[in-house]
Amino acid sequence: MQGSSGSPDIDAPKDREMSSAKIVIAGGFGVGKTTSVEAISEIPAIRTESWMTAAAAQIDRLDPGIDKVTTTVAMDFGRVTIDDSLVLYLFGTPGQPRFWPMWDDLVRGAVGALVLVDTNHLENSFAAVNYFENDADVPWIVCVNLFHGVQTHELSEVREALTLPPHVPLIAADIRDPRNVAHALLAVVNHATERATALAGTGVG
Amino acid sequence: MARRPGLHWKVRPYMTARGRTSSRSPLLIHTLVSTGNRYDPVLAASLTPASRSLYEQARRMCSVAELSASCGLPLGLTRLLIGDLLKIGQLVVHDARPSQDLVLLERLRAGLLRLT
Question: Which family does it belong to (chain A) (predicted)?
Answer without folding.
Answer: Belongs to the GPN-loop GTPase family.
